[in-house]
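Morning. Coffee machine broken again, so started the prediction first thing and wrote up yesterday's gels while waiting. Chain of 147 residues, entered below exactly as on the submission form.
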Amino acid sequence: MKYIFIFFMLFGTLKAGEYKAVFDCSSGDAHYIKTRMWLIDKTMTMIEKRGDKATFAITLHGSCIPMISKEFDFIVPDKDLEDTQKAHDYLKDLVTKRGVKVIVCAMSLASNAIARKDVVDFVDISPNSFIDTIGLQNDGYALMTFK
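Came back before lunch.
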């Protein structure tokens, strides 16, 4: 028992070195989505300031996907336009400036009547984002959900 305690004392306090997480979004609340995109960026910054690496992915499905449409202003209610635009901007920065991989579900595109040609070019389209989420978890990514 004494050796187990020593093991945890020595190795339990080591930094992780790399933080891997997949953020899974199915929420239809534009304001909430906007705040989560902002929080993902801030979390990356905090991890990197500690000297560690943040490797993040985001999977989008269900009601979370309008922000990846090139012309989402036609599909979201007027009251959500400002938050959707800001979420879109945060998402684009996460991809282009931070290297976050973003995967959108093709089945959700179909159910939200968004054609593949109308999807922004900085996201990947997957036949089924659940498969991608499971695969990322199997590769050691922690699952973080926001619904």
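The longest strand covers residues 18-25. Going to sketch it on the whiteboard this afternoon.
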